[in-house]
């Protein structure tokens, strides 16, 4: 078996497949673009890492100007902290005795952590655990601005809950957060812009009402890759969580994100049953099952790419014999969040050569 270090400097075609790739030049340009955009509009960048899962990339984002990072899971936050990444927002609820014990331990180790809170019972449990250990947990009130997932209703319900949090020992109220992700599915650009302005407006108004009530609210956190071009420009927003755009993928591109795609898979052609069909060794166990399918980078006249467990089927509208059994092909990822976590390594590619091999968080970090 070839060691990972022995692959450094080798042509990408030497990799066994399926292999998860990131084009380093494109990713680095996307990082610079996003960091610069946030900076020009005076908001902090706290990129989400749920679809990245590589601390070395998070450190590149921090070096480019990011304030900190966002994680979806406590396990991801622990892994980021262990790798030396600080200032982590867990944009989710940390619920249950064992998880709260782990969160307190993370705080005790000196990591700057913020966590979303939205229910009285969870708030009391966090407060009791933190107070018992003599630490304080930074909390943000999660507000539902139309996503209809987690979060309290804006305005009075969220403000009243923030007041209760502020009074609890072991908790430090830092502000509010939301995710206006439902607006990312709006196709008409003007309608999408109005939807984002309305949703984020609810969050900003809630923050203003918290301050009027004498409550601390220095953080107003929201935004993702599908919305950040509008969200980062809105008054009252202090930080934006957009992160997937550094990789980009077919789903983001289909929804109007114009970043070049950095994330792809290297696959091997295993069958050419007809001149209009190509079968590769990478199915949904390698790509996941995204809403928008992956797409070959360098094959012309593709009409569709469909996935079964271990195979990808590429259909062409014109006979083509230039791709043969045994050839390696690069296929853009359908949706990075459904792809990266399926792999153990991410290969950083520059000028067709393997420059680095990064371990991806193991699946145990899902907890």
Word description of this protein:
The chain has 367 residues and is of the alpha/beta class. The protein folds into two domains: 7-20 and 258-366, D-serine dehydratase-like domain (Lyase, Ornithine Decarboxylase, Chain A, domain 1); 24-247, Alanine racemase (TIM Barrel, Alpha-Beta Barrel), CATH 3.20.20. It has helices spanning 24-40, 55-63, 74-82, 97-108, 120-133, 156-167, 189-212, 228-231, 250-254, 284-287, and strands spanning 19-23, 44-45, 69-71, 88-90, 113-117, 137-142, 171-177, 219-222, 239-240, 263-274, 277-280, 295-296, 302-307, 312-316, 328-332, 345-350, 353-359. Strands 1, 10, 11, 12, 13, 14, 15, 16 and 17 form a nine-stranded mixed beta sheet that branches. Strand 7, helix 7 (189-212) and strand 8 (219-222) form a beta-alpha-beta unit. Helix 6 packs across helix 7 (189-212). The mean pLDDT is 97.
In short:
This protein has helices at about 25-40, 55-65, 75-80, 95-110, 120-135, 155-165, 190-210, 230, 250-255, 285, and strands at about 20-25, 45, 70, 90, 115, 135-140, 170-175, 220, 240, 265-275, 275-280, 295, 300-305, 310-315, 330, 345-350, 355-360.
- Proportion of residues in extended strands: 15-25%
CATH H-level homologous superfamily name of the largest domain? Alanine racemase
Calculate Rg over CA atoms: 22 Å
Q: Low-confidence parts, pLDDT < 50 over ≥5 residues? A: none
> Biggest β-sheet, characterized?
9 strands, mixed
Order of helices and strands: EHEHEHEHEHEHEHEHEHEEHEEEEEE
Q: Helices and strands: which structural class?
A: alpha/beta
Discrete helix count? 10
Helix content: 25-40%
Give the CATH topology of the largest domain.
Answer: TIM Barrel
What is the general shape?
Answer: globular
The number of distinct structural domains comes to: 2
Straight-line distance between termini? 31 Å
Global mean pLDDT: 97
CATH class of the largest domain: Alpha Beta
CATH architectural name of the largest domain: Alpha-Beta Barrel
Number of strands: 17
